[in-house]
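Quick check before the chapter quiz. The format below is the same one you will see on the exam, so make sure you can read both the input and the output lines.
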Amino acid sequence: MENRDTEPRVRHIRLPVKEDTEERPRRWSSKKSEIIPERDYTEGVNKISESSFKLKGKKINIFKIKLTGKPTSTKIDDIFKWFKAEPTAYLSPQEILLRSSSDDFNKKAVKLKKKARILIRTFVEEVTILKSKDKMSEKLSDIILHGENYLDKLKLIIVLVPGFDEGEIQDLLGQISSLISESSHLEILDLENGILLSSVNVEEARSLVKKPYVFQISEDVEMQPSEAVKPFKTPPDVIPPKEDDPLVCVIDTGADPKTLGNALIECLHEDYFVDGIDTHGHGTQVSSVVIWGQDMFSEKDQVTGKCRVISYKFNRNGPISLLYRAVDNAFKKFSPYVRIFNLSANIYNPKEKFDELTAILDRKIQRKNAILVNSVGNILEHNIEKIVASQKYPEYLLLFSILPPADGNNIVAVGSYAMKPSKNMAKEFEISPYSPLGKGNSTHKESQKPDILVRGGNYEFENGKIMKLPELGVPVIGLNREFSRKFGTSFAAPLAASLLAQLCSFYPDISNSETLRALLVSASELLNTGSEFTFQLKDEENLFFSKNHLTYYAEGILPARIEYIQTIRKFRYMYNQVNFFVPGEAKNVRIITVHSDDLPVSKLGFLGSILKVDVYRPERLKKLSQNDAEIWRLNRNTPINFADFPATQGTWNVRLTIESPDLSRSLTNTLMVRYGLVIRMNLQEKRTTLLHSIRETVISRMDTF
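Here is the expected output.
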């Protein structure tokens, strides 16, 4: 992107981060002692003992404990030690899956049946196995557990309990193979994470789901309905991107080299295709939005390239396993030199259990420090036509959940708003009638999804039918350079991907993917969806320049490590501090954080860690609370957190610490959190001071910190 750093626009300002430690006294509980309950663990213990299995010559037990009350992190560690077990997965902050040797468990089983020690009776409500019905959806459970006359083969994705190494997974693969007939099929989808593909009859599936080492089973159904591609008119004149413009990997139906020209750097594919050429059109259309970005929406006769594309072809209308495999392979091939990936495909079967697959993808993305941009899916036309009789627009949007894998913590879920108004659906800037807002069954209630809304299409509704008027669609370029207007969040996601890639190029000093995500939402406006806030990007230039505002950003990696210093009887915590100056021209201060971890407690929309943000204002270094904020969404177990405060001139500071109240102390001490922090100050409309002068003032004040 060209450097247009001229009045009235200025670049965003990077803030230095100060690393330090502090001591806090140990908090002694003043709570009165309670009567220790008598608990009967016998039934659960017997089931666990019966479910033991051999692994590389040793007998193993996998079992679930359900915590109650509020045990401290030290107490949770003590519970693990008492069982002589290691945590393998957190089903929730209260339900933890443990692994131990059968010898160790059998010794504890005797004590559990008689009278367990006080620690266990106080904080462990239940000890049992993971039930078969909890490993799959209700629909699949009915087929496998009760479908005696079900004759068809079941195509299943099997996820093993986390924590097995590759040698142990190979051993379990042999055990599973012995349970199925020669006419059935079994293969490895992901050896490292214990994900298998199988085609088995219902009796074999019933045997598999009862095994304690099986964590989750889902049906490998088709991802989504196919879409027709229709031309509209000739495209605008296109100027290709430059050789040094940023790269985006588009995971889709391939690409048309004739249409994309020099903007297409590579055209690769999954092994079941002979080449990466697009014969459908969807992948080329998505790539066109990535390449020409915001210019595609400008209605100009000429559009200028912003990004280059690596196309990775897969069957987006095939079974779910193909999506997982394609994303995994694309990251392995390209993540060393590509930071932004676009996936405009979703799983249109929200009743199936895919949360563990999404969580595994999520952790892979976090470790790569990359960004996967994903459409939130679409509400199908016939569903809208059916529901509008009882639920009007926009209320019905909350009844349809965003679709996997967009519900991942480290996946940027992109919805859309209407660029142009229709007569009886969305007005300009209102949410597209097909862009869902609801949360999935496995998504935490506080999840901040979708991450962002960008420009998109609109529908008309006449005589009980959805009408797709071309002028209300998203402009795209498809096969043979055919220009058309499309509808769906498939074409919103690539705009967000293009903008993030441009942001990478414009601010090359940014290391953390979380900082890029924080800048993306900071340039947006808050939109109340009825149940939660989301972010709506109306002016893309706010991403790169400040116009009527100032934007600061900072980033870091912060450990949650806690040390107890015996000599002073205090705990020592690590923290990061960021100081910034608020000028007199500021109206409000918005603080946005995005953070990530890859802990086993992290579920969809819910992290094992909290990036605790303490904000201090000039007068007497007052610590701000929720009562001081106009909007407060800080200090939650969610990736995105934010707050709005009225501005007061002077030096402010933000102190960042990591908390993990639901984790054991040993797990907390291994925790590293990566974060991005953005501070945006909207300025008064009527001011005599030039924006450049305000910027110079705040930078000069920063030198005195």
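If your answer matched, good. The longest helix spans residues 320-334.
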